[in-house]
Amino acid sequence: MSMLEGRSIIVTGAASGIGAEAARRFAAAGARLTLADRAANATIAEEIRETGGIAQFVAADVSDEAQVRAMVAQAVSAYGRLDGAFNNAGVDQQPVALHEVDLAEWRRVTEVDLTGVFLCMKHEIAAMLDNGGGAIVNTSSVLGAIAVPKSAAYIAAKHGVIGLTRAAAVEYARRGIRANAILPGAIATPMFADAEKDPAMAAQLEAVKEAHPINRMGTPAEIAALAAYLLSDAAGYTTGAAIPCDGGFTA
Ligand code: NAI
User: Fold this and answer.
1) Which Pfam families match (predicted)?
2) pLDDT (tens digit per residue) in 68-107
3) Which of 22, 154, 201, 246 is the most exposed place for a label (fewest CB within 10 A)?
4) Burial annotation 8-41 (CB, 10 A radius, 16+ → b, else e)
5) Strand order through the sheet with 54-59
6) Which CATH number fits domain 8-245: 3.90.550.10, 3.20.20.70, 3.30.420.340, 3.40.50.720?
7) pLDDT, tens digit, for every residue of 99-126?
8) Is 116 in the pocket of ligand 1 (CB under 6 A)?
9) Residue with the nearest Cα to atom 36 of ligand 1?
10) Beta bridge pairs of residue 86
11) What is the pLDDT of residue 196?
12) Low-confidence ranges of the chain (pLDDT < 50)
């Protein structure tokens, strides 16, 4: 039996990058998917259905509680239960020093990257308690564990995601819910592929690669594989963990 056979799983930020690749990976492992994104782009759900998988698309902004509640309700109504969630939607911040971060920019970043994860967990956990348990995986970042200049809001939010993950892990362990966080290093999403074609960006990208001991960027598939494992019963004794997937960047 495939590792996520029949599991009802939500993926947020599923329209692009890591979320889209996770959707493909979970579908191949037998999951029944609710793919959510703020961008009303259902292409990934259509792709999965066309290749024989089970997926529905829900347009939802993770920073809006009513939309998150509706997203979870739609997963439960389609599949009868919620077994897992990959809370992965996120935005980057404008690269400016902390003393120059507008309050509006702080709020834009933290409302998606931290409050969004809180709202998703709140409603997903309520649904999981109804069926005796489940597994949550949150996308943090290496910047959830270390800091670099000009990313204070993102860094604070991604550190917060690890705190939320740990809080849920200890609070719900005895009720069958596990919660873990993945800390990706630089992942070659389509955004990076575009940058690679730009000679002005190429040198910067080379430096990014060299900062990782493995000397390349990671792939969305490598994050998706770790997420699939953490959502599966194979990770039954792993909870409250914050796991780097970063080519040795934070080692
Ligand atoms: P991406 O930009 O390709 O995909 C993010 C998706 O989230 C987009 O489809 C976007 O529409 C969606 N989204 C943004 N705000 C949303 C909201 N409020 N509600 C619902 N959906 C929303 O980015 P990527 O690279 O796939 O990133 C996914 C996650 O991985 C993010 O949390 C990001 O912070 C994290 N990450 C990415 C790294 C990288 O190098 N790509 C490194 C470390 C962490």
Assistant:
1) adh_short_C2 (PF13561)
2) 999 999 999 999 999 999 999 999 999 999 999 999 999 9
3) 201
4) bbbbbbbbbbbbbbbbbbbbbbebbbbbbbbeeb
5) 54-59, 32-37, 8-12, 84-87, 134-139, 177-184, 242-245
6) 3.40.50.720
7) 999 999 999 999 999 999 999 999 999 9
8) yes
9) 141
10) 11, 137
11) 77
12) none
Contacts with 119 (C-beta within 8 Å, 6 or more apart), sequence order: 62, 63, 64, 65, 68
CA of 1 to the centre of ligand 1 (A): 31
Q: Which amino acid is at 42?
A: A
Residue ranges of E strands in the chain: 8-12, 32-37, 54-59, 84-87, 134-139, 177-184, 242-245
Please report where in the chains the tokens 């998988």 appear, as a residue. 53
What is the C-alpha separation between 7 and 199, in angstroms, rounded?
A: 44
Which among 34, 87, 88, 194 is the best mutation to test ligand 1's pocket, defined by most ligand atoms within 8 Å of the CB?
Answer: 88
Phi-psi region of 57 (alpha: psi -120 to 50; beta: other; left: phi over 0): beta
DSSP secondary structure of 172-188: HGGGTEEEEEEEE-SB-
